[in-house]
Design brief:
The protein is of the alpha/beta class and 335 residues long. It contains eleven helices and twelve strands. The longest helix has 25 residues. The relative contact order is 0.15.
Length: 335
């Protein structure tokens, strides 16, 4: 089974000045483009140093101009926080200015504290998400938008913009447990999963079962994704030293808003050692990383790895070297 590679980026603050941080990331994204990665996926976060792109479309418009082949998109647009009509227009603009390279991730948001920044509770977010997604898909595939719901209402709105990709850009959805796999499988949506390989495998198996029930023997979506922190260096010691420090800084950003309210995030290990033990961070020489990723993809049943190559305080030069080693000595083994 061939495996493709993409980038997942929280755009976490690390230790950099903000303007410098944006320029550093755009420089890295140019390198991702040149190295042959499939796509760049950008997280949306609010009120926390975990994510410095609370308006993903703004940053992605710069990505569109700095790249030629690399596909890109939000992972995910947190739909309850967006006005659906404006979001439809932004999606169409991004797809057009990139020549049809947009990948469209959607979700309702997992952090109650980030939703709280917009005075939205978890139950309300679920309901807003359902309406917003319906509007999004209707608006992207219709000439006129009509909708009447509890939270949103539109009457005879002309859809003056359209996407290059038909009927719309490919859809992505973060799946956190097997029971959540039915909707993306039924609707031809690419799933992305966090966690150790056995946990991810349970979701993949459920997704494939649901897919076959809905679509029979039709070809499945190309991408079954899992995310990993990845750092490659010329020596194992250098890789571990760099990644260990950077993961601690990244997790502090991840936990920042949770700690403010006396809790901790549930989806990631709090220490480097635990993350390494669960193979949620893959570090070392190219040979070490290649063999670990072979095992992870085989055990999890995934065929798309989204690497977090830039996280914490890793200097851009070290990320560039990691990308170089990965693209030349790891990726070819999975073609």
């Amino acid at each position: 089974m061939g495996v493709a590679f993409g980038i997942f980026d929280h755009l976490d603050r690390g230790k950099f000045a903000l303007g410098e941080h944006y320029q550093n990331r755009l420089r890295l994204i140019e390198a991702y483009d040149a190295a042959g990665f499939y796509a760049y996926h950008l997280a949306e976060h609010h009120g926390t140093s975990l994510g410095m792109a609370p308006s993903p479309s703004v940053f992605l418009s710069a990505v569109a101009q700095r790249t030629k082949r690399l596909r890109f998109g939000p992972m995910v647009y947190v739909l309850p926080m967006h006005e659906p009509l404006r979001l439809i227009e932004e999606i169409c603009m991004l797809d057009q200015i990139s020549g049809g390279r947009l990948e469209l991730g959607v979700g309702r948001g997992q952090s109650p504290y980030e939703l709280g920044c917009f005075s939205i509770g978890l139950m309300e977010a679920r309901k807003r998400y359902a309406e917003a997604l319906q509007i999004l898909l209707q608006g992207l595939t219709s000439d006129v938008l009509n909708f009447e719901g509890k939270y949103y209402s539109y009457t005879d709105v002309p859809m003056a913009l359209q996407c290059v990709q038909k009927p719309h850009p490919p859809l992505w959805y973060g799946v956190t447990r097997p029971d959540s796999a039915a909707w993306p499988a039924k609707h031809n949506v690419n799933p992305v999963m966090n966690g150790p390989s056995p946990y991810v495998r349970a979701i993949v198996d459920r997704y494939m079962t649901e897919w076959k029930a809905a679509h029979g023997d039709n070809v499945m979506p190309a991408k079954l994704g899992t995310t990993r922190h990845i750092h490659v260096a010329d020596s194992a010691a250098t890789a571990e030293e760099t990644a260990r420090r950077a993961y601690a800084i990244w997790f502090d950003s991840n936990a920042e808003l949770y700690r403010r309210y006396g809790t901790l995030p549930l989806h990631f290990p709090s220490t480097y050692d635990e993350a390494f033990k669960r193979e949620m961070i893959v570090v070392g020489t190219p040979d070490m990383v290649r063999e670990n990723l072979k095992r992870i993809t085989q055990e999890s049943g995934t065929n798309y790895v989204l690497g977090r190559f830039a996280f914490g305080d890793i200097p851009p030069e070290r990320v560039l070297r990691s990308i170089e080693l990965f693209s030349k000595e790891v990726m070819p083994a999975f073609a």
